[in-house]
Design a protein that fits this description.
Length: about 210
C-alpha cells in the first residue's frame, strides 16, 4: 500500500526483455538512505514492484507480462525518469490517498495549461475506468496522488491541477501531449461498486 506522495525520481539504467516479461535496473538515488531490504515493495510510476537485488544505488526489478500489458513500463528506455515511492509503514504520515500500486489502465495526456506557476493537465481515460471519476475525487497518475479538478459530462476527459512542488519533484514535467500515464482509480469507488452489484448493501428489516 502507498500514499501517492513521490519520494524520489529514479533513472532507468538498463532494460532487458525476456519472452514478454522484463527486468530493469533503476538508480534509486535518495531511497537507498532508507536502508532498503531485498524483497520489499517499491512503486515504479505507481506500479508495485519487488526489489530483487541492490548494488549500491542500483535496484533490479522484474515486471510480468500482466504488468507490461497494463502499464507504461513496457516502453521504458535507459535514462528515462520514473517516480518512486516506498510502501507504507505503521508510522508513515498519511498524506495523499490510499494507493494499492495495482494499475487499472493508461490515461493519455491531451493538453497542458500553464497558469504562471501551476498547471492544469487534461487527460482521456477509457469508458470502463472513467465511470469511477468524480470531481474533487482522488486519482493516481504515474503513482502521484492527485485531485480531479474537472470531469467533462458525457465524456471520458478529466483534468487535474498540479502545484509547483509536484511538477518539479515528479516526472510529470517530462510529459508531452500524447504521453500515456499509469492510472489507478480510487480503490474505495471500486469496492462500493462491487458491494452494490452483489447486493450486499441491504436494509436489515429483521428487528
Amino acid at each position: 500500500m502507498f500514499t501517492g506522495l513521490i519520494q524520489a525520481i529514479g533513472e532507468v539504467q538498463s532494460v532487458q526483455k525476456i519472452s514478454g516479461e522484463q527486468r530493469c535496473k533503476i538508480n534509486l538515488k535518495d531511497l537507498v538512505s532508507h536502508k532498503l531490504e531485498i524483497g520489499e515493495s517499491i512503486a515504479i510510476n505507481g506500479a508495485c514492484h519487488t526489489l530483487e537485488s541492490l548494488n549500491g544505488n542500483i535496484g533490479l526489478f522484474f515486471s510480468s507480462g500482466e504488468t507490461l500489458d497494463k502499464t507504461n513500463l513496457a516502453h521504458l528506455k535507459p535514462k528515462e525518469l520514473v517516480n518512486l515511492e516506498l510502501s507504507l509503514t505503521p508510522n508513515t504520515r498519511m498524506g495523499g490517498h490510499f494507493v494499492s500500486g495495482h494499475i487499472d489502465g493508461l490515461a493519455r495526456l491531451l493538453s497542458i495549461q500553464n497558469f504562471s506557476q501551476s498547471y492544469l493537465l487534461h487527460f482521456e481515460l477509457n469508458q470502463k475506468l472513467s465511470k469511477y471519476l468524480i470531481e474533487k475525487g482522488s486519482i493516481a497518475l504515474n503513482g502521484i496522488s492527485l485531485t480531479i479538478a474537472q470531469k467533462e459530462k458525457n465524456s471520458h476527459v478529466f483534468s487535474v491541477a498540479v502545484i509547483p512542488h509536484t511538477w518539479e519533484n515528479t516526472n510529470l514535467k517530462n510529459s508531452k501531449i500524447g504521453t500515456l500515464l499509469n492510472c489507478e482509480v480510487d480503490l474505495l469507488a471500486k469496492y462500493v461498486e462491487n458491494f452494490t452489484q452483489l447486493n450486499i448493501i441491504q436494509p436489515d428489516l429483521n428487528y
